[in-house]
Structures are given as structure tokens and as C-alpha cells.
Design a protein that fits this description.
Length: 233
């Protein structure tokens, strides 16, 4: 008859001990998720615009002996944290690194993207008069632009409302093959300028091949404006 009370007592003790263990595991998971979300937000703060993140699926806690656990974000799986990605979190036990954990997140971006006000033809020289900054929330197209780079034109036709991306652009040729180009070279306080002939074409910031007069020597210079280039040191 004594076995029954002992069995009941052990069952009651087991019930009393289960909730604290579950609570501890739940708290650790919450801390793990919070560390991943905080790391993603900190990493995104330098990218411009506003990012929203949420946990995509419940992470798994590594099995560790009892101890004081802390969590630190280590790195993101994507440089631009939009769509589905994950954060790797360092798990420390009693201040010593004990394990690594993965937390899957979904990210969206909130800001303004450039889009076409109207249908635009191929090779159109782009100005802000032809574009508008439109509110956007979600996962932007690859290479979507928030500002217009200088001296760009369309590589292909663009439909009204299309979000502008880097792939849509090409530099406006400021130097064309066979044209005269004013080449400037600077050394310390001395600046020399001479007329050359372009043997390739390029836009602002592009490198072009120039032929110096008389010697037929080819040099490479950076385009600085229409018919102008600078010799790099």
C-alpha cells in the first residue's frame, strides 16, 4: 500500500518541476530570436530606407548543459536583408562561446524608388523630369534605384510605371572614337593639357584609350566631361 503514495508523490513532484524547464527553454528561444532581429536591424540601418523583419520559423536551440546563456548576432546570409534570409547567432554559456544557432527571417524594405512617369524610348537621356519617386514596401527588384546617377541613358525602352534599376541604364557617351579629347595631366603643382584623339568611347568615369599627337602613343585616361579626360597618376 505504501507504493501508491510514493508513486503519487513522485508524479506531483515531476509536474511541479516541468513548467520551470519549459519556461526556461521558451525564454532562451525568445532571447535567440530577439538577438537575431536586433542584429538584422543594426546591419540594415546603414543601407538607407526602413527595414521590417519577422521570424519566418521557430529556431532550434542547441542542446547545452545548464548555465547562464547569452546571444550575439554574428552575420547575415544576405548583404541586402530582404525576402527570406537567416542570421547566425553565437550562443554563449557562462560567457564562453558554446554553440552557433540559425534564425530564419523575412525582411521587407520601405522607402521610395524611382519609376518612369511615361513610356520612354531606348537611348533616352534620363533626367528627373522623366521620373518620379514612388512609395514602395516589400522586396525591391534587383538593383532598384532611389537616386538617379549622373549622365545615364536607357539601355532599352521603359514602360510607364516601371521601377528603374541599374540594369536599365548605360552611360551617355561623352567621348566617341575619332573625336578630339582634351587630356589633362597633373603632377604635384604642375598641370599639363593637350589635345588627343579618342580611340575608344566612354561615359563619365569610364576609361578610354587616347592617342597623343605626333607620337601615336596610346594612353588610358578617365572621362571627366564631354570631350575631356584626366590622366591617372
Amino acid at each position: 500500500m505504501r507504493a501508491l503514495p510514493l508513486l503519487l508523490m513522485s508524479t506531483i513532484l515531476a509536474w511541479g518541476q516541468a513548467p520551470p524547464a519549459q519556461a526556461g527553454a521558451s525564454a532562451s528561444l525568445e532571447q535567440l530570436e530577439e538577438a537575431a532581429l536586433a542584429f538584422a536591424q543594426t546591419s540594415a540601418s546603414a543601407l538607407g530606407g526602413t527595414y521590417h523583419f519577422k521570424v519566418a520559423q521557430a529556431p532550434r536551440m542547441p542542446a547545452l548543459p545548464p548555465g547562464h546563456l547569452t546571444f550575439e548576432g554574428a552575420y547575415l546570409s544576405k548583404q541586402d536583408p530582404v525576402g527570406h534570409f537567416f542570421v547566425v547567432v553565437t550562443v554563449k554559456r557562462n560567457r564562453a562561446r558554446a554553440a552557433m544557432a540559425r534564425v530564419d527571417l523575412d525582411g521587407s524594405w520601405v522607402g521610395q524608388l524611382l519609376r518612369a512617369k511615361q513610356d520612354l524610348a531606348r537611348k533616352t537621356d534620363l533626367t528627373m523630369d522623366l521620373l518620379e519617386a514612388a512609395p514602395f514596401e516589400g522586396v525591391p527588384p534587383d538593383g532598384a534605384l532611389t537616386t538617379l546617377p549622373p549622365c545615364q541613358r536607357l539601355r532599352a525602352p521603359l514602360a510607364e510605371g516601371h521601377v528603374l534599376t541599374r540594369a536599365d541604364l548605360e552611360p551617355i557617351p561623352l567621348v566617341k572614337s575619332g573625336e578630339r579629347v582634351r587630356l589633362t595631366a597633373t603632377s604635384d603643382t604642375l598641370t599639363i593639357a593637350l589635345d588627343t584623339t579618342a580611340r575608344s568611347r566612354g561615359g563619365l568615369g569610364d576609361r578610354v584609350r587616347l592617342e597623343s599627337p605626333g607620337s601615336r602613343r596610346i594612353v588610358t585616361a578617365v572621362v571627366t566631361g564631354p570631350g575631356e579626360a584626366r590622366l591617372e597618376n
